[in-house]
Amino acid sequence: MNFPRLPIEKFDENGLLQAFYVNRFSEHLKKYHSDIDHPHKHDFYLTVFFEKGKGRHDIDFNSYSIHPNSVFFLQPEQIHHWEFEEEAEGWIFFHSEDFYKLYAAHFELYQWSFFQSRDSNPQLDISEESADTLQQRFSEMMVEYTKNTKHSFLKIANLSQLIYADLARIYTGKTPEISQKNTLYQDHFHRFIKLLDEKYMHQKNASYYASELAMTTKHLHRICLACTGKSTSQLIAERLILEAKRKLVSDSKSIQEIADELGFENYPYFHLFFKKHAGETPKEFRERK
Predict the structure, then answer these.
(1) CA distances from 126 to 66, 109, 168 (A)
(2) Element housing 10 (H / E)
C-alpha cells in the first residue's frame, strides 16, 4: 500500500492560487471521494468540524471516534483515513504554511497547542455553545471564499485566526498543566522537533539534540516534559516507530532493509526496539495491517 500525498494545489478549483480551501464536509466528500476514501497524507494544515455523523478517524495508526461536535486537527505528512457509520456533515478548511505566514506575521503555527508537534492530541470535543460560534465563523468564511472580492482572503485569514483562537482556548483548558508551562518552552521545543525530523534516522541519542540546540540534556528533557509530558528519549523513539510503521505498511522492502534505512545496526536490535515501543514485532504489525 502506498500513501498518496495530496498537495493543496489539487483543491485550487477556482485558480485562486491562495493555498487555502474551505467547504461543507459533505460537498468535500462528493468532490474528492476517490482521492480521500483511502489512507493518504497532505502537505498542508487541516481542520475539520463535525456537526453530525458517526465513525472512525485513523491518524498515524491511532483511531479516534467521529461524533457530533468533534474537531480534528491534521499537520503536514500525517497519514489519515475516514470510515463512517452514519452520514457526516460539518465543515473543513485547510491552508499551506505560506498562506498562514502571509497573514499572521507575529504568531507561528506551532504556537497553537494543537499544531505544536505530532504528539499533540488531534481531536477536540466542544460544547453546543462553542459549536454554534464555530458554525457562524465557518459560514462567514465560506461566503468570503465564494465571493472572492477585494480583501476576501484577508478576512478569511482573520476568521481562521478567530477559529484557532476559540479552539485553542478550549484545547488548552483541557490540558492546563502542560499548557501553562509550554508557553515558556515552545520555541525551543519547536526547534527540537524540526531537528528531530531531519536527523532521527542517524541520531538517536538525546545528548546529540541537546548539544545541537546549545543546551544541557537535562534542560532539553525538562522542555520536552513540559510541552508533551514525555521525555526526550520517548519522543525520539516515537518518531522512529512512526516512520517504521509507515514503511512497514507502504513499502515492499524487507524488514531488514527497513531496519537499515532507519539506521539500526542490525535486525535483532530493530526487532527488540519495535516490540518494546509498539507492543508487537515488526512482522506482526505488517501482517496485521
Answers:
(1) 13, 21, 11
(2) none
Q: Which residue has the cell 532493509?
A: 257
- Residue 285's alpha-carbon distances to 118, 156, 194, 244, 252, in angstroms, are 21, 43, 27, 10, 14
DSSP for 129-146, please give it: HHHHHHHHHHHHHHHHHH
All three cell numbers of 102, joined, read 502571509
Question: How far, in Å, CA of 289 to CA of 107, rounded?
Answer: 39
Distance, in Å, from the CA atom of 118 to the CA atom of 184, rounded to the nearest integer, reads 19
Name the grid cell of 226.
513540559
Task: Enumerate the H helices of 114-266 as residue ranges.
Answer: 128-147, 152-174, 176-199, 206-212, 217-228, 232-250, 255-261
pLDDT digits (tens, 9 = 90+) for 3-33: 778 888 888 765 555 689 999 999 999 988 7
Most distant CA pair in the chain: distance in Å?
61
pTM: 0.82
